[in-house]
Structures are given as structure tokens and as C-alpha cells.
Amino acid sequence: MPSSTPKNKRPIQVMPPELQNQIAAGEVVERPASVLKELMENSLDAGATAIDVSIDQGGQGLIEILDNGWGMAPDEMELALTRHATSKVTDIRELATIDSFGFRGEALPSIASVSRLTLTSITQDRDEGFEIKLDAGHIASKGPAALRSGTRITVQDLFVSVPARLKFLKTPATEARRCQDACFRLALARLDVRLTFTSGGRKIYTFQAGESLSKRLSQAWPPAVTDVLHPFDYQRDEYRVHGVTGDPQAAQGRGDRILLYVNGRPVQDKMLLRAVRDAYSGRLLSREYPQAVVFVEIPAHEVDANVHPAKNEVRFRNEKSVFSTVRRAILSALDHTNSSGPGMGSTFASETIRHDNHRARNPLGASGSAASQSYSNSHITSLSNKFNHATERKLTLDIAPHRSSADGNHWLEADMVASAPAGATSITAAAPPVASGPETYLGQLADTYLILRGEDGMLSLIDQHAAHERVLFHSFEHAGQGGDSQPLVTPLQLPLHPSEASRLQELWTDLKQLGFDMRTPTPETLSIHAIPALLTASRAKDYLRAAISGQAKNIRDLWAMMSCKAAIKAGQSLARDEALSLLSTWRTTPDKDYCPHGRPIRISWSLSELERLFKRKA
């Protein structure tokens, strides 16, 4: 704790320019990616139609930006290296209508103060360029230089003057990915600009001027995502929201593919993010995120960009209207999309558990109980498909939707079918009630909930989808931990998008532990020589494609997602033996009270609680 009484009283004085720049650099120059962003924004503000970006060692060793913009005269160059010198804002009134990326005049001197920076530029009316070299903010040399057009800025040895900052940087590979992401985000904002990005001598992006948004996205996002993006363009009063949004079936476990822009500026805004996620309410699980690129265009006086030196944050004059407009724009795309069509989950369902002709495999592993083993491959397959209704007896209660009414257990024992209006709630009775462990299985409510009566009179409802999710998740998890493999006679070949290849390297160790034997004969090809014993070849490809396309943060999340897609659904009828088999296996499954996403599986009422609900006692 610092002392409340300073040992030496100092007079108040203006900080030296070098110290001012160092402090400003702490806000503006967080890491190499923030340097790259600031310099690219300067190029765009200077009217550039072509920008070439190069980095080395994750941007810490080198960041170079070359553009064909207007350029600067020698006297302007020295002024540009001074704090709060800018051509973008001249009086306070212009702060209310900012239409440029930069306007604070802090970035260039801040970057120069913590690196070795070379600024070279030429204006269109000159035959010779000019160059200024700085070392930690001090001019080392200046003079004529050769340059065809525009401006070139080279930043070397970032944080050389503040080595303590280097400790806060991640690995060069991680910092390089962040630089790549910063470049990509700006490339989406200006489709009219040709842009290249090179990292460590390898060309990563080549964006041509005039490309469509989908074309640019396809260079960074895998086909599993870009093939199911839906465009939208929504206008309300002076607000316009347009872009693309992903199919709920392609949702992922991370929110890094939700890109937000306000008047062309990439921003990070919690309110806009909430609006996007709210539009997907009821279509995604709580831990899933959609993909979306959202451009919000509103009058300049309705938004304040002067919130933070990094200019990633904005404030809206009317947050409620902006939220509503963004939400409606996303819904306009989703409502025109048949999100219930076949997807990875539905095609996966019928082949969740592999049954080999040469050997029967317990889906819960060798350590499963007898009850678990009784839950055979045929049971799981039948639960995941359309069921046979021939043996079922239904009783439809004459009640309004979303209401419940019963008189004891008489309705469960009735041997009749009562007519009911359209939309009434149906109950499938087990005739007669069948003992299921310590409880009696009474029937199925609304083709969604399994009804149990305990020996002590406890009444329970089991969510069949959530219970099946938990069973499948345990099956996947157990098989994954075991790592049993089955070799393939003919290796599977999987083409790789650059983004998928990067994600594959992150998951490589986990996938091998699951039982995959993989090789990469070329950077664009994955060769699969063995797969987990639990999966068929087609299912193995589905798993890999889902994993490397970013639909899960890790393998555990992937199992949870796949178990949800494969589990029986709400509204799906179960024959008595199917329900009993599911209940038997669910009871022996670890963590059986909640599904993998945290939803409760069982809700129960004791006899006394029921009596209180019916006002029979206080």
C-alpha cells in the first residue's frame, strides 16, 4: 500500500512530451494488433484504395503498412509525429459528426515512442518522397527517400523502450493471429479497397477491390460457416442494419465470429451483442454463439465515438431504438430461413452408436452396469429415429393448451380416448403402469416428459430430451477418454480451409486421445487413418468438421453439442419399452440430474407439495 503522506512533496508541472507519449501509448498501443489497426485506419482515412500489410514475429519484430493514399508533405510528417496533431477534426462541432476512423492525433506519436519507426511519404505533386526515422520517439534521421506513391510506415522492435510490456504479450503465433484478425475486420468494412496481409513471409489474405462480403468472409471462415450465412438489409426511419447472419444449426462455442460495425467502424459493444443474441433466443443453447457480421448505419450525431483512445467503443443517443432495429434486422433473416431443415445433428442421430457385425460394443464402455448394457445400440438408434406407434394407447385430455388438470391417477388407468379441440395437451399412458426401478412409469406427457410415481407418492416428470442428452454425453465422454481406435482400410481425405487447418493444430492432441489417427500430407489436406471405435466413418468426418469449423471451444463442448443434436426431441413419442430402457440407463449415468448444458432433467413434487398446490392444506 502506498503511503498516504508522500516523503517528498513535488510541485505540479507539465509532464515532458516523452512521458506523455509513453502514457498515451499504454492506452492506444496495447499489443501489435492495435498498432496494425491504427496504422491501417490512417491509410483508409488518407484515401488509400490499396494497402499491403506485412508482419514478422507476431508483429513485435516488424509491422509494415504500404498504401497508395494522398501522402504527406515533409512539414506535415514532422507534425503528424506530434501528439494531438490531426487533419480530421478542426473544431469542437466536428466531434459530433465524426466520419473518419481516427481523429485524436495520438496513435502515430504513441507508437513511435515505444518502437523504432520509419515514416516515408510522398504527395501526388512531388517527384521525391521524404523519410523520418525515430528511435523511441526521438528523431534519429530524416531526408529524401524513394517512394512511388502514398505512405509507408515501418515499425520495428515494438516495446523496445518499455521491455516490461513484452511480458504481457502472448506467443508470436497468438499475436500474429490477432494481427490477422484486426486486418480481416477492417477488410470487411471497406470492400472497395484492395488489401493484402503477409505474416512471416507467407501471404495470408489477398482481398481484391470490389469483392462481395461473402467472398471476403470465405477467405477467413470455413465453408461449414459461410455456406449457411443469410444476408439481411433492414431499414427503419434513419437507421439501417445490414450484413449476414448464420444458421442456428452452425452455431459454435465461441463468440469470436460476431463482428459489429457502427458507421463502418469495427466496435465491441455489449448492447449490440445482446441484440444479436436476443434475436436467436429459443434457437440456440445457452453456451452457443451464432456467426454474424452486422453493419449499423445511423446519423453521425446519434453516436459518440469519442469514448476511449482505442476507439473500439461507442455510445448511442437512443440505445433502445438501436437495440430494437438490430434485433429486428437479424430476425428478418432468421424468419426467412428454414432452420428446422436437415443439419449435422439430424443426419448424425441415426448412427450415434456404432454396432459392429463382428462384435457388440457397450455404448457406455466396459465399466457400464448391467442396466447400462441393456440400453443397446438398437435402443439408442430407435430413440433417435421415428418411433412405432402401433403399441401405444393415447388419452387426450379436454383442456386448453398450457394448462394442466387431473383427478388423482384415474386418467392414467382409463382405457378410452376422449376427443379434444385442436392444440390440446396429450398424454400417452403406459397400460398398465410399469415398475421402473424404485418408481413406477405411468406414461408420457405431451410426447416430451416421462411421468414417474415413487413408492412414497412422489410425482416426477423427466425431460426425455435432456435425459437422453446426458446418456449420450456420458457415452461420448467415456469412449473419448478410452481412446479406442479402429483402423480404416482406405484413409479418409478431408480438404482443409486455412482457418480449419489452424483450428486443427489447436485440437490435434485432444483428437488423437479420442482415437483419431491423422496426418497432413499437405497444408490443405487432412488424411484420417483411424477413427474412434464408437463412430462410423461418416460420423467421424462429421465430428472432425464440426470441431475444426469452430462450433465448440473444446472437445467436451463438442460432445455436449453433438449429444444435443443426436438426442430424441421434445414432441417425439416413445414406446413403453423405449421409455423404460432410457430411464434404466439414465439412472446409472453420472451427473444425471442435469443435461450437459445445465438444464434440469427431473422436476418432482411430494404428496404434501401437491396438496398445497391444490389448496388442500396450508
Number of helices: 19
Give the termini distance in whole angstroms.
57 Å
Low-pLDDT ranges: 338-425
Strand line-up in the sheet with most strands? 5-4-3-6-2-1-7-8
Tell me the total number of β-strands.
24
Strand content: 15-25%
Question: Rounded to an integer, what's the Rg over CA atoms?
Answer: 31 Å
The percent range for helix content is: 25-40%
Determine the structural class based on helices, strands and strand pairing.
alpha+beta
Mean pLDDT: 78
Described by strand count, sense and barrel closure, the largest sheet is: 8 strands, mixed
Shape: elongated
Q: What is the gist of this entry?
A:
With 618 residues, this protein is α+β, with helices and mostly antiparallel strands.
Structure description:
- The protein is of the alpha+beta class and about 625 residues long.
- It has 19 helices and 24 strands.
- The strands form 5 sheets. An 8-stranded mixed beta sheet has the order 5-4-3-6-2-1-7-8.
- α14 (about 465-480) crosses α17 (about 555-565).
- The longest helix has 19 residues, at about 465-480.
- The protein starts with 16 loop residues before the first helix and ends in a 5-residue tail after the last helix.
- The model is unreliable at about 340-425 (pLDDT under 50).
List keywords for this structure.
618 residues, alpha+beta, 8-stranded mixed sheet, 6-stranded antiparallel sheet, 19 helices, 24 strands
